[in-house]
Structure formats: structure tokens, C-alpha cells
Amino acid sequence: MKTRILLLIAILNTMGLACSPAAFTTTVNGVTKGNISLETPICSPFGGGPGGANSGLKGSLYSLNSSQPHYVGVDNYIAYGDLISSSVFISQLAVPTTKFNLGFIKPDGTALNDTDGNRLVEWFALDLDTQIKLTANDLDGDYQFALLADDGAVFELQNSNGNLQTLVNDDGTHETTFVCATQVVHFDHNSQIPAKIKYYQGPREFIALSLMWKKINPGSSPSALNDPACGLRSNDAFFDYNQTPSAPQQTYKDMLSRGWKPLDTGNFVLPGNQNNPCL
Fold this sequence. Notes:
By secondary structure, the protein is mainly beta. It contains three helices and 18 strands.
């Protein structure tokens, strides 16, 4: 009987379900990946609170170790980076250009380290899943999406064929950059569309990650999608990061006046309408 209990504990540890975090390695295309499964989820790593009972985004966190090159492109981070946690919960994506010196804080108040034992403030990626819907305050209609990110980010939305389609590609190592979709997506109050956001932070110390949208008036010409801010790249243009919290600059205020806004917590629904364990 004792042997069976010890065997069960070993299996649970391997699955990350027992008290001690599991750690193992795998090899992908010749690159060794570490894997650390944390006991508890990382909740609202960029602030903003946990959101509603089943609202938000859920995903995984990856980091590069010291033996790996500093990749360019979020898919490389996800393919080759060490898996730090398979349960990150974020209430919304509205992170202004900010100095990211503290890193990810765990529930016990300590900072999350990478597999080299260093505080995780750079060379990491997030792979997030959610469903997007209108809130009671949003109007039915066509919406243009955009990403405001430092460094790279990619937004994918499920199309009519049931496949994820890239709508906004803001990938690459760069300053805060605003990239807009070149097509609109129709939403009504019955819409709840699966989506994925992939993001990576390259070298320290600035981060930014906001998923934004703008309602496009019916019958508008294609030029309506050519907002003056689309393609603008600058850490100083959108927010004053020397203030705490970062304060909007005139460029960002003008974007809001033209109808852009970050998606609200109520616009994000966890995959499968699951309950948010961070509440």
C-alpha cells in the first residue's frame, strides 16, 4: 500500500498537481526547453484586477534561458522558450508604455524567476487565449482592431471557417508601435468569437500591450481604416512613462477622440466560459 501511495505522489508531481512544482525538459528542433509548473496561477501580472467570474484571458508564459539566442518573433519564443507557467490569467490588455522593472509577482509577494534564477523582466513571451464579445455598452456593427505593443504582438481571431486568422501583426523587436487591422469584423450581441494574442518582451526595460478597437461607421470608404496613428512607432509618443501610472500623451488622447479604445474587461471571456481562479 505504501508503495502505491509513493507512486501516486510521484505521478501527481509530474503532472504539476501535487504540492511541489514539476520541472522537466524537452527538446524541440535540437533546442532544450525547460518546464516549470507553478503551484498557483499568475494573476493580473500587469495590474488591473482579476475581472469578472469568467472574464479575461488565459495563457502560458515562456522565457529564454542563457543558452539560447535572443530570438526575434513571438512564435520563436513560444516554440523554443522555457515554459514557466501554464496558467496566467489577465483581466484585459490595456498596458501603457511602462518601465517593467519589478517583473511578475507571485501570490506570496516574491518575484518570478526564469529557469536561470534571474528575475523575469525581459526575454519572455505570453500565449493568451480568450473569446471576444460586445458588452451592453457596445453597439452592433463593424469594428477595426489594433495593437499597441512593445515589443512584438500578434492578434488572431477565428474566421467563418473556424480557423484562427491573423488580423494584426505587430511582431518584432521595436519601440511602442501602433499597428491596425486592414479589415473590419462584424459583431452583434450574439457574437462571442475565439481569439489569441501572442506577445513577447525582448530587451528591458519598457513594455506595452493594448488590444484596441474602433467602431467603423456603415458605408465608410476603405480610407476610414487609415488612422493617422497607424504605423506610428515611439516610446514617447503615446504615454509619459516617467509618471506613475504612465500618463497619456496628446497622440493617445487624439486616438481616443477618434473612437479608439482598449477593449474592456467585459469584452474578454475565458475559453470555454471557465471560471477565473484568481477571484
